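Exam revision sheet. Question 4 asks you to relate a sequence to its structure. Input first:
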Amino acid sequence: MQLGPIDVEFLLQILPLLLKGAILTVELTLLAIFFGTIIGLFVALAKISRFKVLAITGGIYTWMIRGIPLLVQLYILYFGLPQVGIELSAHTAAVAGLSICGGAYIAEIIRAGIQSIDKGQMEAALSLGMSYAQAFRRVILPQAYRRLLPPMGNEFITLMKDSSLVSIITMTELLRQGKLLSNSTFRSMEIFLTVAAIYLFLTTIFICLIGRLEKRLAISDGD
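Answer key, structure tokens:
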């Protein structure tokens, strides 16, 4: 069946392979979100720490990682580290690269969210006898959650799209699967339009999930 210049039967034949690549894309994205958020939280806490060494270290981390393209970071992890005796599988290098890069941006989001809370909140909590850690966990973070969600959601979507870069280290995710099919069939238009549609579908799901979570938080806060 022809739909204009698009051969629907051909698309149905290649769709299972593209969906297989899409599953790997989702897996990489979820792992990067998990580890990137952990990295980002610790780096954000380091940057706002009263200890200068931690603050400087966190600042250097975000400065370097945000200043170096993710593609270069992936090359260093996968092709560069073996020269110093450290060999990473393509999967490990992909997850590490996405997590490290995403963590730097998430750190800045978390730092900004925390510092947007009025300092009087911390002072009031301390005056009630809470420790700094207790006040931070019970007073500051709960208020920061809602402010963090929209920019965090945008960063998660960016991580999903950036996962296409891991194709350069032989990870057969969605984009690389499309490239392989294009090279073997010479049907680039149909293939990459389908790849684009799958990416759009995945990012739309993320957007909808984040939107629903924002609404739930708004309801719980009585807005």
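Marking note for examiners. DSSP finds eight helices and two strands in the chain.
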